[in-house]
Amino acid sequence: MCLAIPVRIVSIDGDEAETEIGGVRRRVSIAFTPEAKVGDYVLLHTGYAIGVVDEAEAEETLKLLEEIASLSEVH
Amino acid sequence: MDDTILLAHGSGGKLSHELVERTFLPFLANPTLNKLDDSAVFEASGRLAFTTDGYVVNPIFFPGGDIGKLAVCGTVNDLAMNGAKPLYLSLSAIIEEGFLLRELQRIVQSIRKAAEEAGVSIIAGDTKVVNRGQADKLFITTSGVGIVPPAVDISGANARAGDKVLLSGTIGDHGIAIMSQREGLKFSMTLRSDCAPLNRLVSQMVEVSSRIHCLRDPTRGGLATSLNELALQSNVGIVIEEAKIPVKEEVKAACELLGLDPIYVANEGKLVAIVDPADADKILARMKKNRYGRDAAVIGEITSEHQGKVMMKTRLGPSRIVDMLSGELLPRIC
Amino acid sequence: MKFIDEYQDNKLAKALARRIAQHSLKTVRLMEFCGGHTHAILRYGIRQLVPKAVELRSGPGCPVCVTASADLDKAIALAHLPGVIITTFGDMIRVPGSYSSLQKAKAEGADVRVVYSTIDAVEIAKGNPQKSVIFIGIGFETTAPTIAASILKAQQERIRNFYVLSLNKLTPPVMKALLDSGEAKLDGIVCPGHVSVIIGSHPYEFIPRDYGVACVISGFEPLDIMLCIDKLVEQIERGEPKVEIAYPRGVKPEGNKKARQLMEDVFQISEANWRGIGVVPQSGLKVRGKYEQFDADKVFSVSLKPSKEPKGCRCGDIIRGTATPLECQLFKKLCTPESPVGPCMVSNEGACAAYYQYGAADDL
């Protein structure tokens, strides 16, 4: 239910994509993420991409975390 | 000669002799083995170290090695972990009927190369062939004998509070290299097994310091299991820092994909050394000069608290218990 | 690794810990629904980073832990049928059913194979046309679409020897069942991030609306979980429970429509038997009639001895959030990973296994 890892799409071949994470390559099915493009990161769960990682949101979350960190240092 | 191994190759008759003389002997040749007596007779004096291990790895060929290389290195390393200089190995092969001859030849070459690198001779051997289905392709058992130099006293029971814990390099390489070949878990990587003989590394370490207390090679069960064994044997506590443990990117990634923790994944060319803190730096420096110790690091220390247990300061900050591996290392979906 | 390493930074973790401590005034009880969250919380020591006033309880989101003994007994019985190859995720192999386990069945000669993906199970079926390949379908909404896809693939490629034993379960209905029982007295729920990638955030709206319980959807890196806890505490202190997404890089409010379409095509909703909870209406998935040739339940029949639960095992209480493993009499004494009594100790993300493996210094 839970283990899904962000992997980067290196190439697309119809319903499948060649992906990469930390130097490891794996072929995954993108049947559920037809909108994924080369260069996108997708969440990989048991051989299937279940969603495309929203990089803008990822940035926002990190910014939020850094803000929290700098605010709490003031105390 | 035939392309595959037949039952007759193990029955002691002409074919058996052919197998030994054409496939094994030319490559493992040494004066003692060449005699082909029923037992190998040799001289040795001092404290002897003796060990044995069975090798049943599947797949038998994997990136970075094969069952033959493993069979030599594993036993050589067990001897080295007590500070012994490995001398001789025996080799027993149980072959499944139908095994390809050229694969056996390949494995014998690996054995030869590994034995050469380690500086050991195979002086006794045996081959048996069993019916198809009674062995998974090939099982190898090696026993090894070595000599422990007079001043050396290295044992899992010798750790003392204050000692430093050194690790010779990156963990998880072997286990992940093996898993990458298994059915359903195939992913392509450039990662190779770290299978290697560590006896020269150990003798170099012993040259710079007489205060190495324990050595252990973390094979099945990984670093975590070996550290727990040492903690129990020496009745001490061990504290390590996750951030200090060297792990290759690819191993990290593969572990993420499979839901595994690298500290439980097998290694075949690494050692843990527990040493007097006064000598830690110079031992580490010497390790780094050896090709099998390039990524060596101090990962923790021995404490008199929580005896028999291992604690790890996680990357995030808080500490937690690190237990031995229980059961098999299996990929998870959750 | 991108989108992983950044969310493990320890300075940011400490900062979040300080902030949670600042916000948190009264005692709050949170449930981390998903076994993956329990595992991460214990592996990274998050329990030590949050103030004692924040209590964390495990939930039933561990597909292995909630598989009913009778269902597991059925899988084991199928394994013993001649000509059957059982394919399963690794999580299931060691779990004890009433009398045995898939691992024991394997040792007794059954052909049981661990697969990483349903794709591999279908490949095994292709490669073994004389055998019947049955896939043990566990998991929640994250996994169900992949199982649906495997049935469709088998149909497309005219593979006639592939079957699924559907033990898939659904998340929101069991949350409702837990909240209805009122046993756990929860103030907030750490909602499963990857289930939510599929179902989105709307299905949780009934939780703050009907029960006044806060709901925040969390990712699985330590900073994700701490951010989620921070938001939950804030909601609870303000008395403004709602559904929030603290994992926006993965979860959209509308979820993954394509995945849900596939699920709905292949599966229909049915009641399901949850180990430790009992039968929960509309909480499981069964293969639809039009795909019945792939339904192991329809194609194979096995006779089973009555199922039973191990004595003294408190897995049920633990997954309902009414006890922690530390409160179970068997924990660490009679129930250990080597000789597990219940599923929570066997499964890698069962609460008991996680507590055992990763217990903090104060649990020693």
Can you characterise this structure?
The complex is a heterotrimer of chains A (75), B (334) and C (364). With 75 residues, chain A is of the alpha+beta class. Chain A has 1 helix and 5 strands; from the N terminus they run βββββα. Chain A has one domain: SH3 type barrels, CATH 2.30.30.140. Chain B is α+β, with helices and mostly antiparallel strands. In chain B, the strands form 3 sheets. Chain B has a 7-stranded mixed beta sheet, with helices on both faces. A 4-stranded mixed beta sheet of chain B has the order 1-6-4-5. In chain B, strand 4, helix 4 and strand 5 form a beta-alpha-beta unit. In chain B, helix 3 runs parallel beside helix 4 and helix 6 runs antiparallel to helix 9. The termini of chain B are far apart. Chain C is built from 16 helices and 11 strands. The longest helix of chain C has 17 residues.
Overall 3D geometry of chain B? Answer: globular
Helix-strand pattern of chain C: HEHHEHEHEHEHEHEHHEHEHEEHHHH
SSE class of chain B: alpha+beta
- What is the share of helical residues of chain B? 25-40%
Biggest chain pair interface: A-C, 39 and 53 residues
User: Can you list the strand order of the major beta sheet of chain B?
Assistant: 8-10-7-11-9-12-13
Write the CATH fold name of the largest domain in chain C: Rossmann fold
Rounded Rg of chain B? 21 Å
Task: Note the quaternary state here.
Answer: heterotrimer
**What is the class of the largest domain in chain B in the CATH system?**
Alpha Beta
SSE blueprint and pairings:
The complex is a heterotrimer of chains A (75), B (334) and C (364).
Chain A: E1 5-13, E2 16-21, E3 24-29, E4 41-45, E5 48-52, H1 55-74
Antiparallel strand pairs in A: 1-2, 1-4, 2-3, 4-5
Chain B: H1 14-28, H2 31-35, E1 47-55, E2 61-62, E3 65-66, H3 67-80, E4 85-96, H4 101-118, E5 121-130, E6 138-148, E7 164-167, H5 173-179, H6 199-208, E8 212-216, H7 222-234, E9 237-241, H8 249-258, E10 272-275, H9 280-288, E11 297-303, E12 310-313, E13 319-322
Parallel strand pairs in B: 4-5, 9-12
Antiparallel strand pairs in B: 1-6, 2-3, 4-6, 7-10, 7-11, 8-10, 9-11, 12-13
Chain C: H1 10-23, E1 28-34, H2 35-43, H3 46-49, E2 54-61, H4 69-79, E3 84-88, H5 102-107, E4 111-114, H6 118-127, E5 132-137, H7 144-156, E6 162-166, H8 171-181, E7 188-192, H9 193-199, H10 206-211, E8 214-218, H11 222-238, E9 243-245, H12 257-266, E10 267-274, E11 278-287, H13 296-299, H14 315-319, H15 343-346, H16 351-358
Parallel strand pairs in C: 1-2, 1-7, 3-4, 3-5, 5-6, 7-8, 8-9
Antiparallel strand pairs in C: 10-11
Helix pairs in contact in C: 1-11, 2-16, 6-7, 7-12
